[in-house]
Amino acid sequence: MAAHILIVEDEAAIADTLIYALQGEGFTTTWLSLAGAALEFQRQTPADLLILDVGLPDVSGFEACKQLRRFSEVPVIFLTARDAEIDRVVGLEIGADDYVVKPFSPREVAARVKAILKRVAPPVSAPADAVGPFEVDSLRQRIRYHGQALSLTRHEFRLLEQLLGQPERVFSREQLLDGLGVAADAGYERNIDSHIKSLRAKLRQVAASAEPIQTHRGLGYSYAPEHA
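Structure tokens predicted for Two-component system response regulator CreB (228 residues):
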């Protein structure tokens, strides 16, 4: 079944070029010009990926993404006319998966859509694996800790899955970033620390005294089974 792409863009000419390129790659598309309508659409008939313009007439794309992340982890690609580094950092911090600056090649955007969907797609078959007190279900992208399901964002799931996959190995921030599929030059590296902090808080809600994620100053992070 073809992936469904929701395009949220108020300029018809830009939307038309995206629709043409995406449908040429076999995707189905829906075009909306307002953030509010897009959020309601995603609640009712979820798309597989959103292409979201930052400069929308009703609500900025950044604010729309914040609202979206309250109920959905659908992949998001931002479109913007601004190329400042702070914009890239803000966009990635609030949960975007990629960032495209206008003017852009519609074929490049289509290629990025394909790459993101391939990256986030669950494996065809992946039984739950026990890693100490953790149970990792890669197919459903769920992790249980001491028998309790963790409420994880997609990035938190991938970070924890990567750490659990190689116990005691120290992963650098760059390696963890690569595991998220985010380019090292995207200004996102320092936000690995924020994700780790959030992960630790969620783990402590289950086992207050455990410290399964260890910090190695100047090096990175590891999963320590003896502290789980």
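The longest strand covers residues 4-8.
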